[in-house]
Amino acid sequence: MPIFKVTVEGQNFSFLVDGEPQLAGFHKTLYLEADNDNSAADQAIDQIKNELLAKKMLTDDSSEQPMLDIDDIEEVSAADYSPEKEEEYLWYLVDSVEDDIEEEEVV
To answer: Where would a tag sit more exposed on the chain, N or C end, judged by fewer CB atoms within 10 A?
Structure first.
């Protein structure tokens, strides 16, 4: 069965930073065995949802609706995969990303 490298992007997750609510997003890369890229994408979204639900980071009471999207997906060879290659959640604050983008555009 083919192995797919799937990068999932999450957006609109609310955190308290210094007592103030902030929106955050994340990227996470998974390696999944699947019949095709659509099946791998579905598996990745389901796995992330289950992990976030277990950590109580995905709820229905958020004013901003958290979103999960596939950022990138590609088939890889078995030689290119090892469990050590899977990444943890890479979180970022939305304001800090927008500030970085604005700074880059000004330069």
So the answer is: C
**Which value, in Å, is the radius of gyration of the alpha carbons in the chain?**
16
DSSP state of 55: T
pTM (predicted TM-score) = 0.77
Q: Give the residue among 55, 52, 58, 44 at the shortest CA–CA distance from 86.
A: 44
Residues 6+ apart with CB under 8 A from 59: none
pLDDT at 63: 59
Contact predicate 30/9, CB 8 Å: no
- Alpha-carbon distance of 37 to 73, in angstroms, equals 7
